[in-house]
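Entry:
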Amino acid sequence: MRTNILKFIKAALVAAFWVFVWHIISVIVSREILVPSPARTLEAFLTLAQTQKFWNAVLHSIVRIIIGFILAMATGTLGAVLSYRFKFFEFVSSPILSLVRTIPVASFIILALVWIDSNVLPLFISFFTVTPIIWDTVLAGIRSTKKAALEAASVDGAGKWEQLFYIIIPGLAPSFFSAAVTGLGFAWKSGVAAEVICRPSFSLGSMLQDAKMYVESPELFALTATVIILSLIIEKLLKYIYKKWCEKHVCL
C-alpha cells in the first residue's frame, strides 16, 4: 500500500511539473490560439463534458478502436499459430505482413476510403496496424517455447491441450501482453488519425478536425488530452487484467 502511495505521489509531482512548464510556455507565447493555458484547456474540457455530443463521440471512438484491436488480437494469434503449423501458410502470408508493416498509415487511410465506409474505417485501421505486431510476437513466442519442456510433458502423459494451457500459453503470456499494450497504443493513434481524415459521425477525430478548422485551440488541446487519458486508462485496465491472470496462472 505504501509503495502504491509513493508511486502516486511521484506521478502527481511529475504531472504537476509538466503542467507548470506548459503554463510558463503559455505565458511566454501569450497567444491562446497557439498555446492555450492549462486553466483555459480545463475550462474547455469541462464545457465539452457537459454536452451529449462529446460523450457520444467518446463512446463511439472507444467501441470502434477496441473492436478493431480485439479483432487484431484474434487474427494475429490465429495467423501465428497457422504460420507455425503450416510453412506454406507462412510463406504465402509473409509478403502481406511485410506490406502492412511498411505502408504509411495515412496513405492507407486515404486509399481505404475508396472502399470502406467512413464509420467502419477507424475500426479497420486499428485492426490493420495491430495485427502484424501480435502476429510476430506470438509466432516468436511459440518458436521460443522450450521443446524439452513439451517433450517432458508428453512423456508424463500430457496431451496437446494440456501442453497448450499449462506450458505454451503461460510462456507466451508476458510477451503477448507486452505486445498487446504496444498494439493498443498503435490502435489509438491510428484509429483517431483515421477519424480525423474520414470524419465518421460521433467521433473524437471529427471533433478534433472541427476544433482545428474553427481555430478553437483550447478545445483542440482538451480533446487531445481526452484521447491520451482514455488510452492510458485502457492500458492500465489491460495491465490489471494481466496481473489478475498471473495471480491464477504461472507466468513464466
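The chain is about 85% helix and 0% strand.
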